[in-house]
Amino acid sequence: MQGETRTSKVREEDSIDLDALTRWMADQEIAHVTPLAARQFRGGASNLTYLISDSQASSWVLRTPPHGAKIASAHDMGREARVLTALSAKLDHVPSVVGYCGDESYIGREFYLMEFIDGHIMVTDIPSEMCETPEQTRAMCEAMVDALAQLHNVDLVDVGLVDLDRGPGYVARQVGGWSKRYRAARTPDVPEAEDVMQWLDAHQPPDVAHVLIHGDWRFDNLVMSPKAEIAGILDWEMSTVGDPCMDLGSALAYWVQADDSPEFRSLRMQPTDAPGMLTRSEVVERYSQSMSVEVRDSLSANWLFYEVFGLFRLAVIVQQIWARYQAGTTTNPQFAGFGSATNMLINRAQSLLAQPSSE
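User: That's the sequence. What structure does it adopt?
Assistant: Structure tokens below.
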């Protein structure tokens, strides 16, 4: 089972009460055989994800906030479970929810249990047996882009998620909200970034559309089959109704391509520089083909804004975790270099703004 290779022993700070989970599963009449075992998925830097298995090798995935989580909107398990339930019947490769628990008396936090989708999750490299040619790699990349466009074309009424739409002003709320978070999480070793925040505030385009967005679209949130086909789409914790162009910009903040600077290439978290992968501009072009004229026009006219916003937003996410790491509230060793990553992301945003075409 590939899931075993993506997990490790549960960290002490992230321990989970398996006896309480067993009682909850029994209360919900979820078939299982005791005893339960848990391993922790190594990926992910916000909510915690565990592989739960019973003595007969049945497996589930459990999602829950970290101990002491204070940002409710970033750790809303009920909303995440609801989005998954709504989409699993309408969108390909969305895992089904087995059950949601908002009663914190069981394990001390809310959580939900969903089906486990076996397969490979790519981090830095593509297994040679999965994509043997650049043409196969390109086809896999195109499928990833097409799946994002498919999500953005979901009918909100049809899936019953219209109420997630907070109405006009999505772009403004995002710019203001992420700027506030960065200022609150800033530590002395990272840039003030006031120039980036002021530029974003002054150059924000109007909302171009309100669609269901994923919020964290990247290769390591996809489960791939041995034939390099998408088998599952994971990590919906940041999903909401918002502007699709903002979602694409956020996705491409992770996109490191072969001709990028050595500094930015050092941040590579997925195999987007492999031979055959689309460039960022090719991703935008491919995505645009499946979207409305309004979305295409906004991407063309405002791409610098969406790209800079994506980089800044990612810098804030990284910085919030870096602040937690420095404060000692998390000891996960994968966070040890996040301060440097914040610096590099802000520097890249600043360098884009320094180009003559940004004026």
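Residues 293-327 form the longest helix (35 residues).
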